[in-house]
Structures are given as C-alpha cells and as structure tokens.
Design goal:
Structural class: alpha+beta
Distance between the termini: 8 Å
Radius of gyration: 16 Å
Number of helices: 3
Strand order of the largest sheet: 1-2-3-6-5-4
Largest sheet: 6 strands, mixed
Number of strands: 6
Shape: globular
Strand content: over 45%
Helix content: 10-25%
Length: about 140
C-alpha cells in the first residue's frame, strides 16, 4: 500500500485559487526558495507529522504541521499573499485533487487549522517573509 503525501495535493490546491496563482504563477516550492527567485513565492515545509492509532492498528489519519512561507519584495506584499493562503486553507476540509486522473489522485483532508505566524527579512535575497504554521489532519491510507 502506498501512503498518501498531502504536499502534492496542497500545492495543486493553492495554485487552483485564481488570486494566489495570479501573484505567484507556478512559484510554489518544497522546502527552499530557489536561488535567484525574487518574484512572490510560496515555500512549504513539513515540520512534523504524527500518526493516529486506535487499539488494534494505525487509524490511517496523520496530523502534519506544515510551515508555509510567503516571500515578496515588500512586507505588505508578503503579508497580502499570506492572507490569501490563510483564506484558502484555514478551516478547509474536503478533497484536494491533482493530476489528470483526479479524483483517483486525491488527498482527503479532515481539517486544516492555522496555528502561528512569524515575519522575517532575508538580507541576502532582499525579500520579506511571512511564515505561518498550519495543522493538517488528512487520510494517508
């Protein structure tokens, strides 16, 4: 059995929002912002994942803490992008589809919950970052 990885569905779900896609194009990256990328971007990182169990086995649910960093040339633009992402994710439950064969390629999300925020400036890249954590419960089996 293959375990589902919700990051692929999350990326597709974010880019399916017209307002987010208009700002970032396809610049939604795993783990690191590519060197030299100065356009508004989103970077996602799994901070932790905890499985759920009942008395006889794994339940199939996972709680992941995902950090989403919104990067832009100004703090206002980074914050505006982070707000669009929060509007899209916070409180969501349902199916995230991706790929040509959807819904065969899908992640069932039980709930996404905003959990914290930080702001930063990268002096080398000359970019502002608004970083927010989300707790995501999804079905990996």
């Amino acid at each position: 059995m293959t375990l589902a990885d919700m990051r692929v569905g999350l990326r597709a779900y974010l880019l399916d929002d017209a307002a987010i896609a208009a700002i970032v194009g396809s610049r939604v990256h795993p783990l690191i912002l590519p060197q030299g990328d100065t356009g508004p971007s989103i970077v996602y990182s799994r901070i932790s994942a905890v499985g759920d169990h009942h008395m006889s086995a794994a339940s199939g649910l996972v709680q992941t803490r995902l950090q989403l960093d919104c990067w832009a040339a100004s703090l206002d633009n980074a914050a505006a992008l982070a707000d669009l992402v929060k509007q899209r994710l916070d409180g969501f439950s349902g199916t995230m589809l991706w790929g040509e064969d959807s819904p065969a390629e899908a992640i069932v999300v039980q709930g996404i919950f905003f959990d914290g925020e930080r702001e930063d400036f990268d002096n080398a890249a000359k970019l502002h970052r608004v970083s927010r954590d989300y707790l995501i419960w999804y079905e990996e089996r």
